[in-house]
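Question (not urgent): is this output format expected?
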Amino acid sequence: MNRRERVEAAIRHTQPDTVPYHVSFTVPAREAMARWYGDDDFEASLGNCLLMLDTEPAGSWRRVHDEIWEDQFGVQWDRTIDADIGTVCNTRLTRESLKTCPFPDPLDPARFEGWGARLAARGDSFVVASIGFSLFERAWTLAGMETVLMAMADDKPFINELLDRILDFNLTLIEKACSYPIDAMRFGDDWGQQRGLIMGPALWRELIGPRVKRMYQRVKSRCKKVFIHSCGKVDELFPDLIESGLDVFNPFQPEVMDVEDMKRRYGSRLSFFGGISTQKTLPFGTVEQVKEEVKALLERIGRNGGYIASPAHDVPRDAKPENVAAMIEVLQRQ
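Got this back:
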């Protein structure tokens, strides 16, 4: 089997010859591993099965002050602590400006700049196009977390109109992205924290779920697979997400859910992507503990397909390089 065939088999819940995998890094972790391997281009030989394509316009991030960066929506991010994403430090949209606040063009050709060359050079990779901050996250980055959560409880006209503007933007972007020869679309939208849903299940099902289903069904209508990245303890939504058309759930955090129980309960209907502990094992474990954890996941969660092995999130800055190298060694030597 080649890499694409392994991913396709896993999503079909059939046993591939080896478990497909994908390892990505935060900026400081990537720098640490380049030093560890003595190779700035070490990622080229990892053997990752996924090729990730971004849908943000090329060059859309601009530095506005010191470590303050502005995204395509005009949201400003302070990257003095987190060099990868940052912390929102402005309010882009209010109730009064909701109708007039400009959104970027979902059909901007700069979004797909370079896609042709990357797709031509895809080799045997499984190609996933990503929309980050796709709904709830886009809403709170624009209007503020407190404003959005309060509106979900007591200002339904405002939150419905805001979410619908974002949904319309996403549906247009999905249509264009799916016109390319990609295999899947991945939505980023964190709904959880360590103990459960940020907004609770009732509000998620009222306000988020129906719009999520429309996005997933738009992707499925174009014969592509659907991935979701949602951090936190969100497993109570798995039946809803499966019904909406989800194929692959990420990050599959072992710190907040029992990964073996999730596989038993949902493994015939949902594939999992992640599972290797980034909060405990990679930063604080030993090399042997890392190897044991990765081998156990490949054997138990990877059995009968339904699994793409990966750290539960981008490898964090505090992961020990020797632990990351041990994880990669096990993945490559299957």
